[in-house]
Amino acid sequence: MDSHLILEHVPRLRRYARALLGDRYAADDLVQDTLERAWNKFHLWRPGSDLRAWLFAIMHNVFVNQVRSRRNEIERTMEELPAIAVRATQSDALELADVERALNGLPDEQREVLLLVAVEGMTYDEVSRALAIPVGTVMSRLSRARERMRRLIAGAQQAVPLKVVK
Amino acid sequence: MTQVSEDDLQAYVDGVLVAARRSDVEAYLADRPDEAERLRAYRAQDAALRAIYDPVLAEPIPPTLAERPATRWWRTYAIAASLLIAGIGVGWIARGAISPLVPAPPSFARAAAIAHAVYAPEVRHPVEVGADQEDHLVKWLSKRVGTELRVPKLGSLGFDLVGGRLLSGPQGPVAQFMYQDSKGQRLTLYISAQKGEGRGDTAFRFSQEDRVSVFYWIDDHYGYALSGELRRDALLAVANAVYKQLNP
What pLDDT, on a 0 to 100 scale, did the predictor assign at position B98? Predict the structure, then answer.
């Protein structure tokens, strides 16, 4: 077995985990748990089949089983931070911050689908296999995720009337 | 023009519609500026997500993720199990669990590697008798193994004795001594009587059993195997010191 096969996917797994969880350390913990399970189960992977889909499927399962409770704690801590500190940036960064916040406002199952399609660039079939859901469910979650994002971002932009008025 | 569905619109955003279908969607959007604006917003937020998270790809990978994860309990047994499977001679090599074993080392070296893989990761009970009772340990194991054992002192190489335990090996009782350096890296020295064929003295031989490196030799009807997750040259230096101390 060539261990580099799995290691090649580590940057992508980290990107997905970071987007899924927001917190850098929780994300790398998720990647590490995923890799351990992948090493342990590597004999079950069929050579020639899609290793990326297999690894993302493992990460999805680890995420669903282990991480949700941990993430709720992180969200609680984040909410205690004063929002104003995040906003004291230039306009581009402020928009990205809105996007990030909107992403965090999605239900887990919608966020997973949106990230796999929009960031990871998976086909709908690949997402369906990675998350073990029908393609029809992929499509409906994708549609709902994008629309919810749009509304959350629009809401955030309207809710920033705190321009300095001279 | 055929009916345009929400799925078509999503696929349009993702740029995965076939050309004919794409023209249908574009015709549909031409009359519906609100819908066109909605899809533009989707594309913009997708691009923003990539802008936020793509930089993670370029970040240096933390060392903990850059190689196979460190030993955990399951890995210990995975190594031990794969070594046992190889030992049975099924001729089947667990993908990824173990590198091909050619030429097959004697079962002695393999047994030593298994014992190392099982006991070296032990946190609470690495040994049965600790180094603080070294005299008792040596007397006891000497009696069981059937020869007067000497325990090499490897402090000059950074390895201190942790203690030892009695094991059951392919040829009867085995003494296993464990050493540890300041970083927690462990070595085990595995000693048992050699009966039957292959009992003649040998030079050092080397065997790589998954991550466990083993130097082994036979000296005066006793087999010695030094195992550790060390590089071959580092382990050889220790093996030389062990051999010299046992054959002054």
Answer: 38
Task: For residue A114, give its domain range.
Answer: 83-161
Strand order in the sheet with B222-228: B129-130, B160-169, B172-180, B186-193, B222-228, B212-219, B205-209
Are residue A53 and residue A72 in the same domain, yes or no? yes
**If we measure between CA atoms, which residue out of A56, A163, A59 comes closest to residue A117?**
A56
Q: What is the DSSP letter of A1?
A: -
Q: Is A51 on the interface with B (CB under 8 A)?
A: no
CATH of domain B65-246: 3.30.200.100
Residue of B nearest to A14 (CA): B56
Alpha carbon of B233: minimum distance to chain A alpha carbons (Å): 23
Total-model pTM: 0.53
Domain ranges for chain B, please list them: 6-58, 65-246
Q: Which of B53, B64, B74 sits opposite A18 (nearest CB)?
A: B53
Burial class (CB in 10 A: 0-12, 13-18, 19+), B151: buried
What ipTM goes with this model? 0.81
Asked whether residue A106 is assigned to any structural domain, the reply reads yes
In B, minimum Cα distance to A2 occurs at B96
| Distance between CA atoms of residues B51 and B235, nearest Å | 48
